[in-house]
Design goal:
Length: about 575
């Protein structure tokens, strides 16, 4: 090593103060190279605003003898063909023997009967005490009267259940049909959402496949409860916001000036002042969020979370486009339109869902505003139907916040992710020769709302992974997944004393599957990894997915009420809290 002289010192000092070449990374990034950390390459602003889908390889189709043109065409078709095949698989699983058990199971004692009543009267009537047995009797009987009954959930989900009953009749297949259809469509949506979010058709289809074989989603898709309907509208709203995000950022990218090198440059006037115009996908998201809240009130948490997330996406887009004050710009130009497209549209949708109750006179509290109690106060100028509806909502709120009646299958949200206490919807123990039981020891038939254990336990690690990606790599995709999980999960911690159940978690199960697909993509390895690295990663990821699929098959009898030997049932009770 040569001696350091005054000449070399002056040369080094001059180099330190020399102007940086265009596009050079910042000093702090260059210093990271000393520690072996990579520096992200500088990319075109348009690419950062709207990342392109990676060009898929046609090697898979070439293995089957397809030429280059045919392989490229098949690869393009797979963007829809893959999700449709996954959805078909999910649909076969969900519709197969949908009418079994031929019983009114768990909370089906409420919603299918309310749905049928809505078809008859426009509001919820009253059923006789022995109505459940009469519905599945031979012949079935409908013991319904027009006397109003007190219900504590909005009518939208019950109207959807009523569609199936109107077509197929008041029987288990009829009242489960629409829920099974929405469960199947939600798998298709997650495939397409995963493709757009992760920029990979394979990972999108993987997320949909994981959802198709999740036990909780499967059971809820085959039971006429409201929670899966809430989940469907939440997933649809998330997809609409993703499309809106891409289209809005594309509009910003198209408005940016282009430099001599052909690359787009950030521009303050574009980032700060450009109006983003008509955004129909955001309005569609507001409609879906309104439909979720009009099914069960926990959809309101998603309305708040997604509305804030959408505005923050606008802030980030304006910053990338060159805005000097992105928060101020979003506040001036984006917040008010976003409020109208989400909150105002959602409120209007919620009110519209009560049309049957408003248009008739027999519903519970429908004429409250005309009673002496309803005629007093400062709001007598408000239309009677609206004051009656508001009073009804306040009574329902009091019911929900005060619901502390103990239940055998209630659980604390701390235990949900590890499946601490699943809910048994149906149980029978037929003897040998009864209901398909062929073993001397006797059988057990159960419908257990239990997530596929290996999927959920792997998803716990996936949530930690996406949290790392969001906190330390500022990955917006990880942040979006976390936002969706948090909106469906964290609010339940506010109601520690309330009677709550594990099956409420079905609302955020699709986002657990997206998180797991994202983690599996990292296990396989990013593009550009060595062949050996990707091979080892693919084998590890494949083993995990096959184990999850096996786990679903193993518990399948408990999801469908199939008769199995008592000993086989006991083997599947992995923990005492599952009994």
């Amino acid at each position: 090593m040569g001696r350091v002289t005054s000449d070399t010192t002056a040369t080094d000092a001059a180099a330190q103060h020399a102007p940086e070449p265009p596009g050079a990374p910042p000093v702090w990034q260059r210093r990271l190279r000393r520690f072996g950390l990579p520096v992200r390459p500088q990319t075109d602003v348009r690419t950062r605003l709207v990342p392109a889908f990676p060009e898929p390889s046609g090697r898979l189709w070439a293995v089957f003898g397809a030429g280059p043109e045919a392989a490229a065409r098949l690869t393009r078709w797979s963007a829809w063909a893959g999700p449709l095949l996954v959805a078909l698989f999910a649909g076969v699983l969900r519709f197969w023997n949908l009418g079994s058990p031929r019983k009114v199971i768990f909370d089906e004692t409420y919603y299918p009967k309310d749905a049928w009543s809505l078809l008859q009267y426009g509001y919820e009537g009253t059923w006789a005490k022995n109505a459940n047995d009469a519905l599945v009797g031979h012949p079935p009987e409908l013991l319904l009267s027009p006397e109003h009954s007190y219900v504590v959930h909005p009518p939208m989900g019950k109207w959807l259940i009523a569609l199936g009953e109107g077509v197929f009749g008041m029987n288990p297949f009829g009242w489960r049909f629409m829920v099974a259809l929405l469960g199947t469509l939600s798998v298709l949506l997650i495939c397409r959402i995963g493709r757009r979010l992760l920029r990979s058709t394979a990972l999108g289809c993987l997320a949909g496949t994981l959802l198709a074989v999740d036990g909780l989603h499967f059971v809820m898709s085959r039971t006429a409860l409201l929670d899966l309907i809430v989940m469907f509208w939440v997933v649809a709203a998330f997809g609409c916001l993703l499309v809106d995000r891409d289209r809005t950022r594309a509009r910003l990218a198209a408005a940016l000036p282009v430099g001599p090198d052909g690359l787009a440059r950030p521009d303050e006037s574009v980032g700060d002042r450009l109006r983003l115009g008509w955004r129909p996908w955001r309005i569609a998201a507001g409609l879906c969020l309104g439909l979720s809240a009009a099914t069960k009130w926990n959809g309101l948490y998603y309305l708040a979370a997604f509305a804030v997330m959408a505005v923050l996406w606008d802030v980030a887009a304006r910053r990338t486009a060159g805005a000097r004050r992105p928060f101020r710009s979003a506040l001036r130009r984006d917040v008010l339109p976003a409020f109208g497209a989400t909150v105002v549209v959602a409120v209007a949708t919620y009110l519209a869902s009560w049309s049957g109750w408003i248009a008739t006179k027999g519903g519970y509290y429908r004429d409250w505003a005309t009673t002496p109690e309803g005629r007093t106060g400062a709001w007598v100028w408000v239309p009677d139907w609206l004051r009656s509806l508001w009073h009804y909502q306040t009574e329902v709120y009091s019911f929900h916040t005060g619901l502390t009646t103990p239940h055998t299958y209630q659980s604390n949200p701390w235990s949900w992710l590890v499946l601490g206490r699943p809910v048994s919807y149906f149980y029978e123990d037929p003897k040998a020769g009864q209901d398909g039981c062929t073993v001397a020891e006797g059988c057990a038939r159960e419908v257990l709302a239990l997530g596929t254990p290996l999927l959920w336990w792997a998803a716990c690690f996936a949530l930690l992974y996406v949290l790392y990606r969001w906190l330390f790599q500022r990955d917006w995709r990880a942040g979006a997944i976390l936002c969706a999980v948090a909106a469906g999960y964290l609010p339940w911690f506010l109601y520690q004393e309330r009677t709550i159940f594990l099956f409420y978690a079905v609302v955020f199960v699709p986002f657990l599957c997206l998180a797991l697909a994202m983690m599996i993509g990292a296990i396989i390895g990013p593009p550009g990894s060595t062949e050996r690295r990707r091979t080892i990663g693919a084998v590890g990821a494949g083993v995990l997915v096959l184990l999850i699929a096996w786990n679903f098959i193993y518990f399948y009898p408990l999801y469908t009420g199939m008769p199995i030997p008592k000993s086989a049932w006991h083997h599947r009770m992995w923990f005492d809290t599952w009994v």
